[in-house]
Design brief:
- By secondary structure, the protein is α+β, with helices and mostly antiparallel strands.
- Helices cover 63% and strands 14% of the residues.
- It contains eight helices and five strands; from the N terminus they run H-E-H-E-H-E-H-E-E-H-H-H-H.
- The protein has a five-stranded antiparallel sheet, sandwiched between helices.
- A hairpin with a 2-residue loop joins strand 4 and strand 5.
Length: 196
């Protein structure tokens, strides 16, 4: 075997062994600038993208003891591996494809499972671990938040200003009684003066 070929296959084998998944994409028609952008986005989620001869990747997959997917490795293929969770990489590819209409997810490996394009799309729709934990935390915190709102409404200092002091109530009642009494005699005297 050619020494250069051996080094390349060894590098691919190392990638495959270090990753819990392998996603195969067909990047036909993707421009160099777009491909670089895809690599950057994958790198941001802990994944890497490598282009290699299909025969080299077939050999690396075989050497890794993974299921044989060699018959599907035809055309312009790129291979995504990484330390991140598989749905982060799949979601990145899916979102990139929505934007640029390329690349196409062809198939993948998740451990010993062979995934077709449909299964990869389904994986891309799974929310991230952080999103699931955030939703779970929100669900757990909801009853506590409601209780806190009730307690705040009940014992808030703002409520004290709205309530009337019981000592103020008799003064208000006296004012209400004395004011009509003061006005009534004046109204009664007025007609008497007019009759004189």
């Amino acid at each position: 075997m050619n020494p250069d070929k051996k080094i390349i296959i060894s590098g691919l084998l190392e990638r495959v062994n270090a990753s819990p998944y392998l996603i195969v994409i067909d990047y036909t028609g993707l421009k160099v600038k777009q491909f670089a952008e895809l690599r950057n986005r994958l790198f941001a989620v802990g994944a890497g993208c490598v282009v290699a001869k299909n025969s080299y990747m077939r050999r690396a997959i075989t050497d890794a003891g993974l299921p044989d997917i060699g018959e599907n490795l035809t055309g312009q293929m790129a291979f995504i591996t990484g330390s991140c969770e598989v749905f982060a990489a799949a979601k990145t590819i899916k979102n990139f494809t929505k934007e640029f209409k390329k690349p196409e997810m062809k198939m993948g490996l998740l451990g010993d499972l062979v995934l077709d394009a449909e299964k990869l799309q389904a994986i891309a729709d799974i929310p991230s671990r952080e999103a699931v934990l955030s939703q779970l935390l929100g669900t757990i915190n909801e009853p506590a938040t409601r209780i806190a709102r009730v307690i705040k409404a009940k014992f808030s200092p703002e409520d004290d200003s709205e309530t009337t002091d019981p000592q103020d109530e008799p003064e208000a009642a006296e004012t209400a009684v004395t004011e009509p009494a003061a006005t009534e005699p004046a109204a009664a005297e007025a007609p008497v003066e007019t009759t004189e």
